[in-house]
Amino acid sequence: MSRKTKIYIVGAGPGSTQLISVRGLQILQQADCVIYDRLVNTELLNLVSENAELIYVGKEHSENKPSQENINRIIIEKSQVYKKIVRLKGGDPMIFGRASEELKCLIDNKIDFEIIPGITAASTAAALAGVVLTDRNTASSVTFVTGQAADGREVDIDFKSLVKLSGTIVFYMAVGNMQRICQRLIDSALPADTNVVVVADASLPSQKIVRGTITDIARKCTESGIEPPAVMIIGKNCFSWFEKLPLFGKKILITRDLAGDAEFACKLAARGAHAVEYPAFQLRDLTDTQEFKEIFKTIADFDWVFFTSPRGVKFFFRAVEKSGKDARIFAVAKIACIGSQTAGELDNFGLKADLVPAVYTSEEFAKSFIKDHNPAGKKILLLRSALADSELMEKLARCHAQVKQVSIYSAEKVKTDVTALAEQIRTEAIDWITFASSFAVDCFFEDFDAKSINKKIKIASIGPSTSDTLRKLGIKPTVEAADHTIDGLIEAMEGVTEPRQ
Ligand code: SAH
């Protein structure tokens, strides 16, 4: 390995940890020091080596924000200590990333460096809002402009020339001076009905999109409570190619755990729908119980280990990691997964399920397992949620299997302020309420009265047992997912256009 220190200026991408480049991620994992900015998703830092030093240099709006000189000083100082330093910046480092100042410092101090590009906020926002930035017939150029000068004030740019280009304009740092920027564009002869899309927190579960014209966008953004970071895209092409998708513009309530179901929200955003989040419960890890610890030592003695949910797989492998062991603890034990998502999660840990039943309910699973794998005398371990019923265990035990079931996680209702949501439910300000489990149904109706749900709001259930729980409360699901997964839930909603009866 070279003895020379190298600084890697890495673009972290706009928000989602999935949007860093492969090379960026590799270098990040090898780094012995990471100096990172405010807009970098800190989840990326979980991927850095445990021994690496992490230095935050982005205290925006704070007295203690390190000046550029201080950041440069830190870089120089650390280059004398470490060999592989990552300077991690949000989006792309070469776009509004103050890269010039840092590159000058590196060159002046003869420090070796490499720049690894990142996905910039403009292209992320465009992709996620379904807006095309250039079009060979209608927009021959795209201009990236800052909405704020270095001192936070409005920038001094030639608005007339900007408008004359007739291309797409993307304002970064757009929130603070939005009203003023729009007015200056109108004053510079931009037609008052020009389309505008503002995207905040692009690629994150909290992503928000506001659409309007140059005349009303600032007001609409204030009304929607848009906060930085956001980009404003202006131009003829600022209509969305998602408009024709069935869930476009729909507001969909997702009942989820506190830690967040980013996957569901992001999948909805990619279809032009808005996720309205209702954090109703939190998950509790039960892998530190004596019962689990005992069984953990004997996993290899079982003929079959069953996982019943993707969450269960996650909690289990966290425990494996903590114990310093790896997937070999299963030895020859076979693994069954209820549901393709559970099997997919297992795959993330490098293991292929031996059995994934086509039908996902416990009842159907028990039936097909008993038929194909004669359970008599077999040792079977069920790793499941504390909320699951004992149906599967009982059915297998009746066939003389030696079944042991252990809860590896549980869910608990949390108290949240639901005043605003209650109003949305009453007034049909949302289009769908989704339920991904019976427990989510119970949590929801602890907070809301079934009668208060506006009749026009449609209800989506993930599967038969969730639907049963709903029916017991007098709620008829508008749709039930054929595939009992989040994708199935989305597909079921996409198939419906009629209001609830
Ligand atoms: N180098 C970055 C830009 C840094 S300037 C890049 O290439 O994206 C900071 C500005 O970037 C923010 O004020 C906002 O306008 C934009 N931005 C960064 N992350 C964003 C996100 N996730 N969603 C929307 N805009 C974002």
Characterization of this structure:
There is one protein chain. With 501 residues, this protein is α/β, with parallel strands linked by helices. The protein folds into four domains: 6-119, Cobalt-precorrin-4 Transmethylase, domain 1 (3-Layer(aba) Sandwich); 122-243, Methyltransferase, Cobalt-precorrin-4 Transmethylase, Domain 2 (2-Layer Sandwich), CATH 3.30.950; 251-280 and 414-494, 3-Layer(aba) Sandwich (Rossmann fold), CATH 3.40.50.10090; 284-412, Rossmann fold (3-Layer(aba) Sandwich), CATH 3.40.50. The protein is 31% helix and 22% strand. The chain is built from 17 helices and 19 strands. The protein has helices at 22-30, 68-79, 99-108, 121-129, 159-164, 178-187, 217-224, 262-269, 290-296, 310-322, 340-348, 362-372, 391-398, 419-426, 438-447, 464-472, 486-494; strands spanning 6-11, 33-36, 53-56, 84-89, 112-116, 142-146, 168-172, 195-200, 208-213, 230-234, 251-257, 274-285, 304-307, 334-337, 379-385, 402-413, 432-435, 458-461, 479-480. The strands form three sheets. The protein has a nine-stranded mixed beta sheet, sandwiched between helices. Strand 18, helix 16 (464-472) and strand 19 form a beta-alpha-beta unit. Helix 2 (68-79) packs across helix 3 (99-108) and helix 10 packs parallel to helix 11 (340-348). The longest helix has 13 residues, at 310-322. The termini are far apart. Residues 14-15, 39, 89-92, 95-97, 120-121, 125, 172-174, 199-203, 228-231 line the site of S-adenosyl-L-homocysteine (SAH).
